[in-house]
Write a structure and sequence with these properties.
The chain is α+β, with helices and mostly antiparallel strands. The protein contains six helices and seven strands; from the N terminus they run E-H-H-H-E-E-E-H-E-H-E-E-H. Strand 2 and strand 3 form a beta hairpin. The longest helix is centred in the first third of the chain and has 16 residues. It is globular. The N and C termini lie far apart (41 Å). Keywords: Acyltransferase, Transferase.
């Protein structure tokens, strides 16, 4: 599937919100309580405004993947929020694609556009086997750190380049 990747704009907030709600339901239906997903959808208008603010403030780097005029995925990165010594400074805060695009290359393309070969870290929901396998194929590994969130236990994964690993020995 050929897709176009472009930075999110304030005009994309509604489509991005709808995508974000859809992909959460696709990815987490069997992992989080249904009422949590329903509450997220009920807060759609507030989420649209939040995405507008994020896009206009430039506080994170959000990229959108389009197939024709249909939004099929997004990624968000930012300076890491964790202050652990030695942790890469780049955090992949989100990477989601529609289930209909699984296996088409949209996810790896978004990841490459978002972080390239950079050292980075992310948080993944425990039990999200599809995402964990994807990130492991991209060189991420669990570092043993976990944190409880309202959606469940999140586990941290870190990717370090061969060059970084060699200089830290």
């Amino acid at each position: 599937m050929s897709s176009r990747i472009a930075p999110a704009r304030t005009d994309d907030a509604e489509a991005l919100t709808d995508l974000h709600l859809d992909v959460w339901e696709e990815a987490y239906a069997d992992l989080v309580p249904a009422d949590l997903l329903a509450a997220r959808r009920a807060g759609r208008d507030a989420r649209i405004e939040r995405w507008r603010n994020i896009a206009s403030a430039g506080s994170s780097s959000t990229l959108l993947a389009w197939s024709g005029d249909r939004l099929v995925g997004f990624s968000s990165t930012s300076t890491g929020r964790d202050d652990d010594v030695g942790l890469p400074p780049l955090e992949l805060m989100a990477l989601y694609v529609r289930a209909t695009t699984y296996g088409t290359g949209v996810g790896p393309a978004l990841l490459d556009a978002a972080i390239g070969a950079s050292d980075a870290y992310l948080w993944v929901l425990d039990g999200n086997a599809r995402a964990i396998a994807f990130y492991e194929r991209q060189g991420f590994r669990f570092d043993g750190v976990t944190k409880p969130e309202d959606v469940g236990l999140e586990r941290r994964m870190v990717r370090r380049s061969a060059e970084t690993r060699a200089t830290s020995v």
